[in-house]
Amino acid sequence: MTCASTGRSTKPPAEANGPARGPVDRRKLGWKTSIAVDGSGIPVGWAADCANRNDITLLDPTADQIVARGLHHDVDTVHLDRGYSGARVDDTATAAGITDLVRPPRRKPRRRLC
After folding, report:
1. C or N: which end of the chain has fewer Cβ atoms within 10 Å?
2. Which of 96, 5, 8 is nearest to 49 (CA)?
3. How many helices (H) and strands (E) does the chain have?
C-alpha cells in the first residue's frame, strides 16, 4: 500500500460580531488537520490540532493511528510534501516500521542580486 500524508489549516466558524480570522493570520484560529490516505484515497490515519501548529507535530499521532490499526505492515511507501523534512520525521517513520519516504528535493536558496 502506498500512503500519502499532508496537513492543512481551516478557518474557524464565523463569529456573531464579525468575520473570523483566516488561517494565514498570526495567532491563527481554527484547525490544522493531518490525514494519511492509501493509494485509493481512503483515510487510514488522521489527527487534528490548533491551526498554529507545525505539520510535523501532527505526523506522530497520524502514524500512531496507522500502527494502531495494524496497517503499518502494509505501507510500502509514504509520500510527503516539502514541509516534512528532518530527523524527527525519519525517527517517526522508523518507529512506525516505515522505511521508504518520498519527499520533494529541498529548494536551493535564492541568490540575492544586491
Report:
1. C
2. 8
3. 2, 5
What are the strands, taking DSSP E only, across the chain? 2-10, 31-38, 43-50, 77-79, 100-102
Output phi, psi for 7, to 5 deg: -120, 155
Q: Which of 83, 71, 28 is nearest to 46 (CA)?
A: 71
Question: Letter for the amino acid at 75?
Answer: V
Nearest to 84 by CA among 101, 71, 99: 101
pLDDT digit string, tens, across residues 56-65? 888 888 888 8
**Segment 32-51, tens digit of pLDDT:** 888 888 878 888 888 888 77
Amino acid sitting at position 6: T
